[in-house]
Design brief:
It comes from Fibrella rubiginis. By secondary structure, the chain is an alpha/beta fold. It has three domains: 221 residues, Rossmann fold (3-Layer(aba) Sandwich); 37 residues; 123 residues, Zinc Finger, Delta Prime, domain 3 (Up-down Bundle). The protein is built from 18 helices and five strands. The protein has a five-stranded parallel β-sheet with strand order 2-3-4-1-5, sandwiched between helices. It is globular, with a radius of gyration of 23 Å.
Amino acid sequence: MLFSDIVGHDDTKQTLVRAVQTNHLAHALLFDGRAGSANLALALALATYVNCETRSGSGDEGGLFGATAAALEAPLSDGCGRCSSCMKMSRLVHPDLHMVYPVANLGKGKNTSEAVLPEWRKFLIDNPYRTLSDWLDATGGENKQGNIAAEEARNILQKLSLKAYEGAYKIMLIWLPELMNVASANALLKVLEEPPERTLFLLVTNQPDKLLVTILSRAQRVAVRNFTDTEVATHLRQTLNLDETRARRLAYLTDGNLAQALKMGQTKSDDTVGDQHAWFADWMRACYRQDLNWLVKQADQFDALPKDRQKGLFDYSLRLCRDLFLFQQGATQLLRLPDDELKFVQNFGKILRPDLIDRMVGDLNEAAYHIERNARPKMVLLDLSLTFARLIKN
């Protein structure tokens, strides 16, 4: 992965490049961006860049530091993509690149990053804009929870105790460190406090609020913004050869989530968001009608869905509640909805009080938490449905 492979984000790329050229690169960087952003891609591009043997446009080809003022004003520097280091990084087989990521416990010793490394390499090489649910699906753990186990802590310490094999840096890339258990998080904290020489930590997170405060304090945050509609549409046209109209529509629907846009672009229609909207609209109408038989059947169907699909439906419900609130406050210019969803928001928003929407958001967040903690989905949704039916009636 090179910086030039990532659409947009020129300011972030330039900041990272200049940090390397001026010898101001922190030993630990926290790439903070939401799911579907460029945070993982930027981390991989930086890992390629720092160990490239002949970086282009850096002003110090073949060297690591000492960039001149003229070099800093030159076009964006990048890895060459041709040297031995870049070629190995493109296949994720560089001996100084170590990666840790969440794994579902699949049994037979397949509960560590090392055990599923071939699958991980293929997963990232195919597309670096991926989500946790994509990764669990790819490894057969779609109905399980991914986490970074305590055994990973020992692996991290063991790998970092060795000197760099051939690159300027040893690189430890940790994807979604917020899913570390307590033992792993404490081990990471210890090594961040006393980092080995010439070691670079790249932490890629979607939820930094779930990380230990002490870990946050020892890493330099790199804020990764969402993709713009133009960037998403450009990437879809380049990679999937979509026409301009469909690429623009997918960009609009996914609101900067390139992972979701790519997934929808590979299907024949935009069914993912459409199905979620139909599910939510039917749910709210049944709550309004107090149709208990329908709500019980819906809870049974919800119970049979994969966990990531259940979470996706709750995420969509929360997003539409936000849109309902914006509509009630007169901020319709902030709504990013296609016609059918906008019409639903306009009609349903007329019968809900703002304080009711606030209560619904709180209940949805609590329900999502219980699903995350392995509560029975059928009971969670049915309880939520009965609560909403009562609130809407009153």
